[in-house]
Amino acid sequence: MRRAAAALATLAAAACSSASPTAPIASTAPTAPAAGTGVVARDVFAFEDAGAMIPGLVVEMRYFGSENFVGRRIAGYEAPVCLLTQETIRSLTAVQERLNSLGLGLKVFDCYRPKRAVDYFAAWARRPTDQERKADYYPNVDKSQLFDLGYIAERSGHSRGSTLDVTMVNTRTGAEMDMGSPYDLFDPISWPADTTVSKAAQANRMLLQDTMIKAGFRPLKEEWWHFTLEREPYPQTYFDFVVK
Question: Which pLDDT value is given to residue 119?
Fold first, then answer.
């Protein structure tokens, strides 16, 4: 079983909300804790390899390769590994077991995301001419609007280790279920409640969402694939160790 420690020696603990621009970032470099903040020991933040712990989980880490909206591997991804907090893995295992009883299973596209990867996305979004994958991932959106529309942000819940991007697969064939739009398509058609997709896609989206909610996850209204553990263990800490 592969384990990943989420800090080196000490990390700054969180002291403000996830939306705050001053929320602490847990860095791979050892730093002295800021005055008034807690100290997080190395052995506290243990992230696990979900692919090794959840039977049958399909892992396709899109940001480790070039099949993503940027068109190349993203900073911080040195291996195609789905790292998540132990609490998230336990809840995700319950989802997998429920779907398996229906002949379905889970496939993850992204899990823990280092803060440096989020910064990479932000820097990319500010380069107007870098639009290699526009036709595939944001055909109806002007790149200059990615921040305003919420598709790109300075912070991501993925960096807290309890958020993941996921779809369903047929366990017999391995084929992805019809969800109505591709993963990471920046478009209103990707909203879970969108009714322009087929009835089958709507039913698949609702099955995934309902199963995840029952296991303790919170969906995102703009992305059918995005879920965060409601009772995430580190709601105010953004980690930055590499995925390897």
Answer: 96
Q: Per-residue pLDDT tens for 84-103? A: 999 999 999 999 999 999 99
pLDDT surpasses 80 at 3: no
Say which CATH class 48-234 falls into: alpha beta
Question: Closest Cα partner for 68 from 151, 126, 178?
Answer: 151
Higher pLDDT, 182 or 238: 182
What are the C-alpha distances in Å from 93 to residues 50, 56, 238?
Answer: 9, 10, 24
The string of pLDDT tens digits covering residues 6-40 is 433 333 333 333 333 344 444 333 332 232 232 33
In this predicted structure, the answer to whether residue 170 has a pLDDT above a threshold of 80 is yes
Q: Which of 154, 223, 230, 232 is catalytic?
A: 223
Cβ-contact 157, 234 below 8 angstroms: no
pTM for this model (two decimals):
0.84
32 Cβ contact partners less than 8 Å away, ≥ 6 residues apart: 10
Burial status of residue 48 (CB atoms within 10 A of its CB: 0-12, 13-18, 19 or more): buried
First-to-last alpha carbon distance for the chain, in angstroms, is 13
Q: How far apart are CA 6 and CA 95, in angstroms?
A: 25
Gap between the Cα atoms of 212 and 214, Å rounded: 5
Give domain limits for the chain. Answer: 48-234
Please indicate whether residue 223 is annotated as part of the active site. Answer: yes
Q: What is the DSSP letter of 34?
A: P
